[in-house]
Amino acid sequence: MSFTASNNNNNVLLNWTIIADKEVDRFEIERSIDNSNFIKTGTVTKPVFLHEQQSFSATDDVSNINSEIIFYRLKVVGKTGSVKYSNIVHVKKQNNNIDITLSPNPANFIFTVSFYAIKDTDASIWLFDNAGKKVFYKKQKVFKGFNNIGITDLYKYSDGIYNLKISFNEKTVIKKLMIKK
Fold this sequence. Notes:
- The structure is a single chain.
- The termini are far apart.
- The chain has two domains: 2-92, Immunoglobulin-like (Sandwich); 101-179, Immunoglobulin-like (Sandwich), CATH 2.60.40.2550.
- It has strands at 2-8, 11-19, 24-32, 39-44, 53-61, 69-78, 83-85, 89-92, 101-103, 111-117, 121-128, 134-142, 145-151, 160-168, 171-179.
- By secondary structure, it is mainly β.
């Protein structure tokens, strides 16, 4: 039996090939984030022919899994109740999150947007008031690595909650900013 896994935009494609010498009832896909405690995430119940090589596949959406590395194994359950496990395989989860920090928040006259960019690019920053009206826009070159962009002159804006939108590296994040003087 061979068992492989590959991650494609947080949808893990699981493939396995088997030559069964005993009747198979089902395949159970098991996932773990610690390589120790596995939970069943899916079942495949397709006909398995004896002494013939067959290939099977399944997918697992891991977008809500909070772990960088995800482990899988395949549980093969025979018609007699016998159990056999595949080798354990792992995938690295693709992190699409951008960690943005606004400080201070609440802000009074100035605040800083801090983030990590994976490459040199342009960043666009918008500030929208509570009614959704754009009150600020700034485009700035950012560099691969950690970046800090200072936003000044907040005295122009009323106290309240604002939405800060930042786009760079083909990603967009919206964060809440409170202005309080």
